[in-house]
């Protein structure tokens, strides 16, 4: 019964976002125990307690970009749009254009980017996040960043990350910049 519900939920998710969930379906088919242990991570990926939507999705996009070449990043972009993040802010994160970001998006982007790159200035941005949103904000952005990285890596590890594609924001192609020049 539980597997039937999971399959139905995966199909609905795939249809809603136009996202290929075959790697999750394979996991469910081949190792239901693994799938049902992994399933709570999907819920954890939606955690946001202290930071605004723009900040959370800026970190999620940075995480997806660190490990993905299109489909998972597109999924995060679509979810950001659905949650109400402004198109121009999403595009600014995808282009790594800090000047085009509002203060909230910029702070989250700089924190997530510094952590993802293991930069020496991560502490500076962590302190700024802490000053803005407290420890819960640091937790929110850390989870958003790292869980944003997890799904593309699981997909790749299982051999399903075969497709690269352009990322669009509401039908508009965006030239994604993966890391600073």
Please provide a brief summary of the model.
The chain is mainly α and 181 residues long.
List the helices and strands and how they pair.
Blueprint: H1 2-17, H2 22-30, H3 32-44, H4 53-67, H5 71-83, H6 87-95, H7 103-116, H8 122-157, E1 167-169, E2 172-174
Antiparallel strand pairs: 1-2
Helix pairs in contact: 2-3, 4-5, 4-6, 4-7, 4-8, 7-8
Any overview of this molecule?
The chain is mostly helical and 181 residues long. It has a domain at 45-170. 69% of the residues lie in helices and 3% in strands. Strands 1-2 form a two-stranded antiparallel sheet. The longest helix is centred in the C-terminal third of the chain and has 36 residues, at 122-157.
Strand order of the largest sheet: 1-2
Low confidence ranges:
none
Helix/strand/pairing class, anyone?
A: mainly alpha
Rg over alpha carbons: 16 Å
End-to-end separation: 51 Å
What is the number of strand segments? 2
Order of helices and strands: HHHHHHHHEE
Q: What gross morphology would you assign?
A: globular
Strand content: under 5%
Mean pLDDT: 93
Main sheet overview:
2 strands, antiparallel
Percent helix: 55-70%
- What is the helix tally? 8
């Amino acid at each position: 019964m539980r597997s039937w519900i999971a399959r139905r939920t995966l199909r609905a998710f795939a249809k809603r976002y136009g996202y290929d969930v075959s790697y999750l379906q394979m996991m469910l088919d081949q190792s239901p125990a693994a799938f049902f242990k992994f399933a709570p991570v999907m819920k954890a990926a939606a955690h946001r307690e202290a930071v605004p939507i723009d900040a959370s999705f800026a970190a999620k996009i940075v995480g997806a970009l660190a490990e993905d070449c299109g489909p998972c990043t597109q999924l995060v972009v679509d979810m950001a749009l659905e949650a109400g993040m402004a198109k121009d802010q999403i595009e600014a994160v995808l282009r790594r254009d800090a000047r085009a970001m509002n203060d909230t998006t910029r702070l989250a982007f700089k924190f997530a980017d510094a952590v993802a790159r293991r930069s020496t200035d991560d502490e500076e941005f962590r302190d700024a996040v802490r000053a803005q949103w407290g420890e819960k904000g640091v937790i929110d952005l850390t989870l958003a960043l790292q869980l944003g990285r997890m799904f593309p890596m699981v997909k790749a590890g299982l051999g399903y990350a075969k497709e690269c594609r352009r990322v669009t924001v509401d039908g508009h192609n965006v030239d994604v910049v993966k890391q600073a020049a």
